[in-house]
Write a structure and sequence with these properties.
globular, 448 residues, alpha+beta, 5-stranded mixed sheet, 3-stranded antiparallel sheet
Length: 448
Amino acid sequence: MSKYPTGPKGLPVLGNLSFLRGDRLKFVTENRDRYGDIVHFRLGTRHIYQLNNPEHIQFMLAKYPDKFHKSPALKRATKDIIGQGLLTSEDELHKRQRRLVQPAFHFKRISSYADVMVDYTRQMIADWQPAQQYDIAHEMMRLTMRIVAKTLFDTDVTAHADTLGSAISVGIEATAQRVMQPFGLADYLPTEANRRRREAARTLDEAITAIINERRAIQEDKGDLLSMLLMATDEETGDPMSDRQVHNEAMTLFIAGHETTANALSWTFYLLAQHPQVEQKLVAELQPYTTTPLTLPQLAQLPYLEMVIKESMRLYPPAWATTRIALEDFELGGYHIPKGSFLMTSMYAVHRDKRYWDEPDAFRPERFSPENEANIPKYAYFPFGGGPRVCVGNQFAMMEAQLILGTILQQYGLRLATNQPITPQPLVTLRPLYGLPMTLQPRTVPPA
């Protein structure tokens, strides 16, 4: 049995540290094409194993998840913003918190959020001016932030949306930079980046703390996620959630709950602008519903709408990669992988692997028709992760994306406002670098 799989050799001592500062999407896709299922490389003294085979990804995420923890670098990078929320907590704490949060995302509960999603989208559209240019990435961030705050915390953050959005952007950029610093020494230097990071963390902390304190003061069960967190008791111990844990979970869901959906929508508009025939087919499907606001039951009659969003998340998955650290030795793909090794897999790379996708770089929503989707290998497509750590809000996100996209397309087509290429920026999430400038083209028959 070989000691290591093949992979890029890198430099003595440093290994492939240049990957952290270079084109990370190109690095993981070239690794996939050159070296196959398991790729080995080093970041300094750390041994990294990139998994490109769906069966190996399933092994890590779903079959033996207890053999792995989230990357220590991710925990360190996020601790002053989200603490130990669902994203980074482990073992019994994660299982306990998952049990407490899960009911807030049951379908019967999230179905009650549909009207808010549509109403807020229509409010945004009412403020838009035809033929004007907008940064759609910014617009989607602002919209999904308002929706998450209202549906999960029953609060209106409209007046503070830009301030909070800016703080979240700083936090995400800082998190990505800190993950890329293998030893964390730069965290404590008096740099401008560290000052901005601490200021952003303070802004978000104050906002979430104010929401929690206001709810505690009125002592009212509003039936939303925040009420559930405040009233929750563990079914085994009977203990309530601590104030710090309520804060951590609320912060995690507030940030993750709007960031990923906003990115998915931004990339969908980008792809539709480049593929007018797909947009025409989608608008035709929406045609019977153009005179009234979309409703949740109507989504069942709009299969192409869902297919478009799924295909968009294949090409531009909101989370482009995920990492773990091995808690024990194990064998995988004919290799011995020792305890303490780092494993990573890239949704972006696997979703574009020609072994599992015909013409992988082409935008073809028909891949996700019921008959075609049934033939996609398990874990060749995993935009929401998988196993016991699969995104707790995946149904919420899909419903939200469909309702927002459909509502906007009822009234407007969106066209790219620049000939410059739109470049993906792989931070923690996959954002369009420099935003997404687009112009609005009104439909001839706008909704009533």
